[in-house]
Structure formats: structure tokens, C-alpha cells
Amino acid sequence: MKSILLVEDFKDISSWLAGLLRVAFGEVEIIEAVTVAQAYAHLDYQTFDLVVIDLNLPDGNGVDILRRIKQQKLSPHCIIATACDDDDHLLTALNAGADGYLLKDQQDEQLIRDLNGILNGSPPLSPPIARRIMKLVRQDPVTVLLISLTKREEEVLTFIAKGFNRAELAEQFGVSVHTIATHVRNIYSKLDISSRAEATVEAIRRGLICT
What we know:
- This protein is an alpha/beta fold and 211 residues long.
- It has two domains: 3-136, Rossmann fold (3-Layer(aba) Sandwich), CATH 3.40.50; 141-205, Arc Repressor Mutant, subunit A (Orthogonal Bundle).
- The chain has eleven helices and seven strands.
- The protein has a five-stranded parallel sheet with strand order 2-1-3-6-7, sandwiched between helices. It has a two-stranded antiparallel sheet with strand order 4-5.
- β6, α4 (87-96) and β7 form a beta-alpha-beta unit.
- α8 crosses α10 (177-191).
- The two termini are 25 Å apart.
């Protein structure tokens, strides 16, 4: 581990995380960014072994950085470091390509152990997140088989689970936002769900995406 990009907009938290990273990986180069735009600029001209990303940034969402890294086929490990422990944020980040998800409220020793997992191939997941993932991905094949979706509804469900919003979905499929809203409403009604997190779980169960 030689170079790390740390994307965090609060200076105190950034300094704290940088300290943990140095304990975990030794004397590494740590480049700090406080916005999505700054992160993009660094990624455009420098190669990193690890990118640690907060989700809520002044000019956007850390998931946007994840998507750019994956779309450009860059090679760093990407870890979310956040206070957001709800299903929507977790599953959106994982399906955008996050290699790990750490909660900032964990003890320093635990975070260092989780970070060290990168060195032996273990995904860095805070224990509460690991337990939540296990709960979310439990299979219920009977339920899945009883509920059918059209091909287009399956496609829309896949992109919902990947974190796309309705405007992005409309652009992806070349239709109006109103048409996408109708598809989403029909999907949610058929599956008896009401959130992106539940939609992501259904996409996982159907094999449309994987964690």
C-alpha cells in the first residue's frame, strides 16, 4: 500500500482517518480531497492503491466517485467511511462497486483491524454492516418465483438497485421520467416494497446483481 486518496470534507475527521490509515498501512502517501470535484481531479492524474470515501460531500455523493472509478476501470480498493448505517446507503454503495463499508462510530482498534483486512483479501466491513448484509441477502426463492416482472421491469429494477435515480433511468432507456415513474410504481406494487433498499434485496434474490 503506497498511496491513498482520502475524500472527507470535515478536517478533524479527515485527520483522524489519516492517522488510522497510517497505523494500518505504515508510511503511506495520503492525498486529501474535500469535494467530489477535487477527488475527480486527483483521480485524473494520479494512481492510488486505496480510495476512502465519505458519502455526504458538499458537491455531491461519494457514490458518484465510486461509479467513476469503476466505469473508468481504475484499480484501487474503494472503501466507504461514513456515519450512514441504513440499508439504502449501504446497498447503493455496495452495488456501485464499494469494496468495503466502515462506520465512523466504531472503536479505532476495530477500524484498524477492518482496514488491515485489505492486506489479506478480506473485505473491510464494520461488524454491524456485515450482520446487516447477511440479513438482507437471505434467500426466499418461493416468494421470488411467485412474483413475475416484465423484461423492462427487471431492467429498471437492476438500475434502481445500482443507485440510478429516475432522471438517470429515463436517459438510460431513452424514455420520459413519467414513463420511468410508472415502471417504478408497478415494480414496487408487484413486489410489495417501498424503498430502494428493498428493491436492491429483490434484485439480489433474482440474480440481477450481486454483492
